[in-house]
Write a structure and sequence with these properties.
The protein is mostly helical and 282 residues long. It contains five helices and no strands. Helix 3 (40-182) runs antiparallel to helix 5 (251-281) and helix 4 packs across helix 5 (251-281). The longest helix is centred in the middle third of the chain and has 143 residues, at 40-182. Residues 44-157 form the DUF4200 domain. InterPro entries: CFAP_domain-containing, DUF4200.
Length: 282
Amino acid sequence: MSLGIMEEEDLAEYFRLQYGERLLQLRQKFPNVEEQSESPSIRLLEKKKEAKIMHQAMEHKKQTFQRRMETLNLRWEELGVKEEQLKAHIHKFEQFIQENDQKRIRALKKANKERELKRQRLRELAKAKQEMNALRLEHQRLCVKLQDYAYLEKVVENSEVFRSEVVGLRWLHQALGSQLFSDPSPLAPQFEEIHEVIARYKTLESRWAHIQNTAAKKTLLLGTIKMATLNLFQIVSRQLKETTQESLEDTHKQLDLIQQFIQDLSDIWAEVKKKEQQQFRV
């Protein structure tokens, strides 16, 4: 009994596997008897119903598509706005970078210019220091020359006294000489005194000639000193870029101004060296 049931089940499974798909295809090809029994009006209503359902489905899909398109359009507009904002940010950033580059270039140019100005000022200060040392030496030399000139002025003042004394002795020498040649006996006791007077006369005459010669040399030297002092004074005036009311003949005041200029340069140089030492320590 059970064996028969199993054989029937196996046979049914066999036919189902062998002919199931074919039977399904044949069923799809041939219309159902119930469907054939339906009237055309019923089929038309069903077709309309299916068409309505299809139309509703299409409308639903259309609305869904429109909503999606609207969403996409909004998204596209948002992306456009963000793109413009991004372009604006990029433009600002590029402008910021460009401005920073320009500032950096200006800063570099300014730093280079300041370094060049500093080097130029150091060169000018070094040159001024050399000129200051030269001016100091020239000032010392001129001061010594002026002292000699002051002594010369005193000598010239006293030269008139020497000259009058020399003239008197010359006249006395001539008178005594003529008297000795005519009659030497009355002057014999004063012979030694006469010789002393003659010797003094010759000494004073020699000194007078030396004074005249020295005075000529000192006068020439004095003119040279005054010209050198005037040249230095004019150089200092050009450096100071100002006009002065000092007389061109007042050598002492010119030397005072030169000395003051040298002192100012010395103070400036000392201040520069002090700042350099402070920067080096920092």
